[in-house]
Design a protein that fits this description.
This protein has a domain of about 140 residues. About 30% of the residues lie in helices and about 20% in strands. It is built from 5 helices and 10 strands; from the N terminus they run ββαββββααββββαα.
Length: about 260
Amino acid sequence: MSLKCRHCGEPLKERDTVCPRCGAAVEDKNAQAPRSINELQQVCAMRNVPLEKIRFFIGEDCREPKAFGIYQDDDGQFVVYKNKADGMRAVRYRGPDEAYAVNEIYQKLCSEVALRRAKKRGASVSPERARRRRRESLKTGVIAALITVLLVGVLSFIESRKPQTGYYRYNDDYYYYYSGDWYWYDEDDWYPAGTLDEEFLNDYRDYRVDSYDDTWDVTDFTDSGWYSESGGDSDDGDWNDDDWDDWDFDATDWDSDW
């Protein structure tokens, strides 16, 4: 099967680390994309994606103009749709395959992010602005070097104080520390842990367990929608608040079918 950029669809070679068309990083081939509506909602929540602002409605049958979405209808079919500027709906997919439907809307979300990134990279910079940037860079170079030395020491200390990624068991509950956040297993799935017991936070090292054991009454965190093989540092992980602040959903071609 030929490789394609998950953001713009450009064919890729095995050795490519970035897309030659849109510049997006090529993700780990083994990393799993979300395969259910619930997993996609978790991924978006983890990355603070303001879905309504960017006009993506996950698990919702939105009837407003200018909207992408996915939901399961009363017949149990999964529907992926786009509402055009005039309110007319174009159905991208309707069928029983949830993983396929979720991938369709997920790839569209990725391509919309890539579209805006490409526009940012292609924005023209005036010669005067470029010269000013170079002058500012030279002025701050020495200061930045000194600050870097200090920060390396501070960050090394902070990192040494962070919990190790992995499983923890406390009062018969299971927790997982991953990418700066605590997760807690509750009945049938993993969720952000929220407020934790002070005793646990003070002595978490005492509650760490070496590795996952399938005799536990919990699912493997690495199979959850919160986990990424790249450790949360994939290209999608760069979907930060600045991207959403600058989002203009009118940049989308709302008159096309998809």
